[in-house]
């Protein structure tokens, strides 16, 4: 008989394996041990097929009981339970005690097949000789946007052209806690708690006090419209109560 692909599942492993029907149960247990890390005598095996009850894979004489006598169907699940006490079981998913290798920066710098070497060769990012001027141009453009839009702390505004996202400008400047960015951001305290934070980000508070309500949002200047945007009165459109 041809091999049958089954999904072997245990506490530490879930992988597809090809099972030979001519194996005895004892052979199966021995072959599973290096895969799941459970000794043969401590394996409780069940075969689960979609729509059918699980079938225990066990017998009085496992050396002479063969897998061909079980309902092996392609991609059925072979569940293996470790019957040892919890303290005696291996936890192959716990890597906290595994010593990890960290390559020293100076050694990484010398490698010719690294991402860093590729960036150097392609003159990307900080290796681009024009990078400083490009960064300055972006910073200048953001500052000009702030001036053009008359963005100042204390002014009323709306964000992204959305009338439901009205609020007050609380901060204008760099936000170093936002990774990979340069230039100015605008911090807005929205009237409704539909923001992303409470005025703090990355452990730094830019305005207000700690709150579970998310009234705060940081956006780029081009998304801010300064103007006469009073607080929306939820009752103003109601004719009667």
TrEMBL record:
Keywords noted in UniProt: Chaperone, Cytoplasm
Similarity-based family: Belongs to the TBCB family.
Location of the CAP-Gly domain: 176-220
InterPro entries: CAP-Gly_dom_sf, CAP-Gly_domain, Ubiquitin-like_dom, Ubiquitin-like_domsf
Protein name as catalogued: CAP-Gly domain-containing protein
Keyword Metal-binding recorded: no
Pfam families reported in the protein's UniProt record: CAP_GLY, Ubiquitin_2
Organism: Monosporascus cannonballus
Cellular compartment(s): Cytoplasm
This protein's record includes keyword Nucleus: no
Main subcellular localisation: cytoplasm
Superkingdom, taxonomy of origin: Eukaryota
């Amino acid at each position: 008989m041809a091999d049958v692909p089954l999904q072997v599942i245990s506490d530490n492993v879930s992988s597809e394996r090809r099972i030979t029907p001519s194996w005895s149960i004892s052979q199966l247990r021995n072959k599973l041990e290096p895969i799941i890390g459970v000794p043969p005598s401590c394996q409780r095996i069940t075969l689960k097929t979609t729509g059918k009850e699980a079938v225990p894979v066990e017998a009085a004489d496992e050396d002479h009981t063969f897998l061909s006598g079980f309902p092996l169907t392609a991609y059925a699940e072979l569940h293996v339970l470790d019957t040892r006490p919890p303290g005696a079981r291996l936890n192959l998913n716990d890597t906290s005690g595994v010593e990890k290798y960290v390559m020293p920066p100076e050694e990484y710098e010398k490698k010719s097949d690294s991402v860093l070497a590729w960036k150097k060769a392609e003159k990307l990012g900080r290796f681009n000789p024009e990078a400083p001027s490009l960064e300055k141009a972006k910073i200048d453009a953001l500052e000009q946007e702030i001036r053009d839009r008359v963005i100042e702390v204390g002014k009323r505004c709306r964000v992204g052209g959305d009338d439901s996202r009205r609020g007050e400008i609380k901060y204008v400047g760099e936000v170093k806690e936002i990774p990979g960015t340069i230039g100015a951001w605008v911090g807005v305290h929205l009237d409704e708690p539909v923001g992303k934070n409470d005025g703090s980000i990355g452990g730094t508070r830019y305005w207000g006090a700690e709150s579970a309500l998310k009234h705060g949002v940081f956006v780029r200047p081009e998304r801010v419209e300064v103007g006469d945007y009073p607080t929306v009165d939820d009752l103003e459109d109601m004719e009667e109560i």
